[in-house]
């Protein structure tokens, strides 16, 4: 089996490679093709992979290329994990939004829209080329904003485009641990859009165990989402929201925390990751060790401003181990390639699973996965307020897709203006101007 990774010089690639190295199953990935627009980044990551593979028999053979067509031809699976505009772009997204007093997070609010507007045209071009050069390949999208980008790709690849995020898995794992149940055998009733979903039930041995958690304030205070949102709010909701809903439910506080911060997340990562790639240019630098140190720091500071705004303290040690996104990716590939039936929470076209969204809307729901792909499981409708949010954000995503397709500045303004976290059409217009001036990738908007 051959796996191609677009954005193969990305920092998280060694996590995926580590999972591949540990995979001894029949039909595992034996060839890994890494594509990146930046050969220097490919070289840096290749050094880490070489350290990881040392002493491992039958390690997947790694090829590096900057030629997209060459990378796609012959692929069985394509991971798309690109970052259009780099971390410099992410930092600009945050800065410009915050200057208008709105959120600039890379997937939520104004920042997510800006990132989506410059990523969708690139993702669609990749999808078109994949459909032509590797028509049998399955495309697994990690590129944020993952739900929107997966929907853009699905317009060319249909249900062969599947989006992945580790946040629902992480939430499920934390809740299961808190309840003392095995996450492998539990059924997580989770639904919504990417970074906009709610866990409404956890069924284990035929019983819903979530009410037991919601009734126990001490248990609620003992894990990440409980500390972020507070027991009172979780009890009011009667569900556990995805951590990214913190930006909605505590918008004023998170915007303030971001504004007051010495550096935004994007600016921090630009420097932190920049140091790693620079260090990898030095001959003799310990690659795996440097990478792992950098990774640990990145994990420890994840969502730090949110935790600070909520007084939630440090992340739990158990949340600092990786094992989220690469595990989902491996399980997904195994299920498809070997027909090893499994259930995973994925981003796929709705096909009636979640009312009232249309069939082509990409949603994040539990899916049954087998050799025929990922089949969304029909789930109970969300309560009114959650349905409202999901519909509003999906409408925003559709404006982004329309803007990318038509090049219409009007549609881009509508995307910002209709977002629940952008509070004025005038702000939306200024955001489009400022983002267009900052990002060459938005030059298509007229
Ligand atoms: C979580 C999210 C991802 C995001 C990642 C890294 O896993 O689900 O979408 O890419 O965190 O966030 P960071 O702020 O470190 O880039
Ligand atoms: Mn995610």
Verbal overview:
The chain has 446 residues and is α/β, with parallel strands linked by helices. Among the domains are: 2-163, NAD(P)-binding Rossmann-like Domain (Rossmann fold), CATH 3.40.50; 389-442, no CATH class. It is built from 20 helices and 13 strands. The chain has helices at 13-22, 39-53, 68-72, 86-99, 109-133, 146-157, 167-179, 210-214, 217-220, 224-229, 231-237, 246-249, 251-260, 265-279, 287-300, 304-310, 325-338, 384-406, 409-417, 425-438, and strands at 2-6, 31-35, 61-65, 77-80, 138-141, 161-163, 187-193, 196-204, 207-208, 240-241, 342-349, 362-370, 373-376. It has a 6-stranded parallel β-sheet, sandwiched between helices. Strands 7, 8, 9 and 10 form a 4-stranded antiparallel β-sheet that branches. Strands 11-12-13 form a 3-stranded antiparallel β-sheet. Helix 1 packs across helix 17 (325-338). It binds 6-O-phosphono-alpha-D-glucopyranose and manganese (II) ion (MN). 6-O-phosphono-alpha-D-glucopyranose (G6P) is lined by residues 144, 165-167, 265, 269, 298, 302. One of its GO terms (molecular function) is oxidoreductase activity, acting on the CH-OH group of donors, NAD or NADP as acceptor. Keywords: Cobalt, Glycosidase, Hydrolase, Iron, Manganese, Metal-binding, NAD, Nickel. Substrate binds at residues 90, 144. The active site is at residues 166, 244.
